[in-house]
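ok here's Isoleucine--tRNA ligase, seq below lol
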Amino acid sequence: MTQTKEDNNQKNNPAEREEAIFKFWQDNKIFEKSLAKPAPKGEFVFYDGPPFATGLPHYGHILAGTIKDVIPRFKTMQGYHVPRRWGWDCHGLPVENLVEKELSLRSKKDIETYGLERFNAVAKKGVMRFADEWQKQIPRLGRFVDMENDYRTMDASYTESVWWAFKTLHAKGLIYKGFKSMHLCPRCETTLSNFEVSQGYKDITDISVYAKFEVVSEPGTFFLVWTTTPWTLPGNAALAVNPDAKYLKVKIGQSSYIIAESRIAALAERYEVIETLPGRRFVGESYKPLFDYYLGAKLPDMENAFLVYGAKFVATDEGTGIVHIAPAFGEDDYNLAKEKKLPFIQHVAPNGVFKKEVRDFAGLPVKPKGNPRETDQKIIENLSNRLLVYRTEKIAHSYPHCWRCDTPLLNYATSSWFVRVTELKNKLVAENEKIKWVPEAVGKYRFGNWLSEARDWAISRSRFWGAPIPVWRCEKCGEETVIGSIDDLKKRLPPRNRYFVMRHGEADNNVMNIISSESGNPHHLTERGVAQVKKAAQSLIGQGVEVILTSPFVRTEETTKLVADILKLPENSVITDQRIREGKFGVFNGRLVPEYHAFFKNNLERFEKAPTGGETYADIQKRMGEFIYDIDRRYYGKTILIITHDSPAWQLFSAANGMVPKEAIYFRGEDEFFIKNAEVKKLNFTPLPNDEGFRLDLHRPHIDRMTFSCQCGGETKRVSEVFDCWFESGSMPFASNHYPFENLNAFNPKPGLFRRPRGYPADFIAEGLDQTRGWFYSMLVLGVALFGRAPYRSVAVNGTVLAENGEKMSKRLQNYPDPMAVVEKYGADALRLYLLSSPVVRGEELRFSESAVLEVKRKVLDRLENVLAFYKLYEVENSKSETLNSKQIPNPKSQIPNQNHVLDNWIQARLNQLVGEVTTGLENYELDKAARPIADFVDDLSTWYLRRSRERIKADGEAGRAALQTLGFVLAELSKVMAPFTPFFAEYLYKETQNAKCKNQNDDLKFKNGESVHLEKWPKINEKLKAQNEKLIGETKEVRRIVSIALEARAKANIKVRQPLQKLKIKSEKLKARQELLELIKDEINVKEVLLDGKIQNEVELDIALTPELKREGELREAIRTIQELRKEKGLKPAELATLVTSSKIAATGLLQGFESEIKKTASLARIEHGVSVTGDFELK
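and the structure came out like this:
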């Protein structure tokens, strides 16, 4: 194969080479072919968790994405069919927070003022802002994944499946509306689920207070109460003691204090114990509240306020053993309030500020972001001024913050929709035990412990941009209706009118096959067309058509007149409407239809691209949508016939059903026309929530406008909440397939009589450690609740990639290199292999090091490229030889060489061992164990096999050809082993070890043997030779150990390896009777003989005595090395013979005398001459 300078430059630049290979994959549809090729082992199910497209990919995405790429590639090569479909997470607080920043909105109230519809429109447009960059970067990183047929959690089809899940769980009694104390983000003004809360804990220092509650019956005596949340004190409704604990009444100065005996150390002063009493003694005592804001308030159960109650949950190992109860701000508090019928005092609004009743602090945020102690200090100051503070102290603790906006959370009692996870707990734990977790500890402890303590899941959010909770409530009687599908909703929205859609009869332009898109075109109905229309009109008799709406074209008006006459309709029942005119096809008006079709690559492009002066199909859908919704509002109880054209009719149905382009194309079918000349189709139309393009949009406020009547006569409206985005992402397995509404051949968890479940559960998933309480959890809960079993069999959990200094990677600090800059420098493969070889793939942390990426490139990829360069050099030279034809050296990948040289046998044994190690690692999803042996093998291949085989390969004859064939076979097989890890380099290595380059084939998706390494089968392990191979590998390891010791002995004696020595004695007898291995030692150490001698004292004994003959031979070898360097400097290839000119000094020494033939052969020389004016000792010409 001829290599150009451009080729060499490309191969020296990994980024350029990778981009060329990426283009090859795209041009030849290699990914598509890998999906289309035979899959004898069946389906391997993989779920890909959806990322947000609101930012660019970072190292966390790249790491998880690489893991997700490796296993499907491996399984595909093993003979499985592995669909890989990309998805996008589109909803929730992450998106809302970004939009709020862009629009300078600070609160929920600001959003409502701005306008919900406007806000969600911005969110919808902005959620995919970086999608284009993702679609460039993810494939560039070497990932095979379908990003064209992606799923999006904001799509109506996805939401419909989420609705189905909600209704199904509701029918099982697993959904309920409850009022509980939960964590609330005051900035976002919504509650968070328990696993969302777990993601946002931060260490902060708060101020706690020991407050004095005076006993009504004993003025001057105080219950001493400790709290870390002084802001909750204005909402105090009761105090609680442990009825079984002992309490002390102590005197300090003029005051007395009541405190748990076990907490007496909390007192900071000398005290006198007055008496010891059980906790139950204080139950029923009245006390004076610290604040009088709610004294006399007209709240239910106020008669039970400001009393002491007994409660077993009161701990006496911290604080004072007396707890202040604020029913609206704590789970224990709320539960006690329900039990004892305490008043529900909620002195803080959902936005986290004190209500107006709290006069001294009204409007203040209770836990300000940036200074969470500020308001607590003001509360304490107020109490101190009234002598109601015993003392304060700082407390360092872990406090929950909003996982998206970093605002301190509040424990706040409010309503939410819940999934009864507590009822599923035992099943969840049991299913988790069946899952293979890598690392195991994550599933067993981190995830397992979380499951065992699982609480009911709050799945609703009081927000805006999210899938709407599908519950409608009657404003009159309170009856709730749960909707589980679009059809379910349609049934409650009865149609106002009946519609028929008809296309005009055959016209002149149809016969001529030309575009006629202007109303002034004189294209009339043909005789056949007239007959078609009359026949169609007859079929409409008896349908009760009262109104005809027609397009203003000659052919449609003629059609309308014929129909109206047959149906005997009056003139005033026929109305011309410009909106249902033919599509505007601009410059194609009057031209042949095929010319218009050729303007587009595919049907999808017609929705996005318009000819000059024309409109897109999206434009047609919009005007047809405006038409049908307007007509439906203007008429009621009518039967209406719409006479239009093919494309408008198609888009009328698309708009009426809220179809997105892909759905509309599928709905249209493969026929030449959507509706034939004079064909009549019934249009079932019910107004649906749509966006401005009349595509189904189930978001607020569109969905909120869908109301219907209740049996009681009241109006039923949707509740305002939206789903927790984790409920949506957890629905991914079924919602991405629009289950149970379509795609049942691809996804159906329910087995049939002769059918296994399809697409469920996943054989493999992978995400980061943070997803143990996110996607892994939500998916498991929904999978078990809906389908009765875990949704995945195996999970690979990666850890966190940190900055090199151990800190969290930060854009602000710029403490890490840009990922794509690293790819441009070192190539995607180097980055991939670096990550895959590290402990981060098994849940541990990794300090990212750019220098370590470079090291991987140099030690693995560059070293292997040097081996390949050597192979190609001699493969090309040998291919020119008349004695070496294709029969003597078959395609190196086609068969295993059968040779006798120990090195050839050893490297094949190591290859077999490598295949085994990598296969085992991948089968167990232990990617580091699979990736690391590759580097070791490349080291063995380069520094031992090739170095020891160079001279053999250079030499003529069978031995050299055998070594070259072995090297080619090993490289070709290695390319397959490396394919899942380093897909670009593996492709390069594979193609460079083929006898002929494959031609590009863009015409179809047929699998072409040898076209790509990613279409190859995974290498098989030769089990028959396993024992033999292990023995040889062990022996070679011993050889290398001895060589290492002997070379150390040489170094200590300060004798270069090029200087021959007489003999080496070896103590070990492990290599006895293995002369070929001893020969390797002899050559490696450069000695004349190797002897086994168990009597020597050390492991080896090296004879370092130099005879004149040995010295001369050493000088000769040094001369040959110099000549070889000169050849390299001149860029000479092995087959190019040169003339050596020696200096008079060298000639005088007689150094070369007697060895000229050997030197000629070794250094590829034609002849040797002696010169006078030679610079240095030697020159080549």
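fwiw The chain has a mean pLDDT of 90. kinda neat tbh
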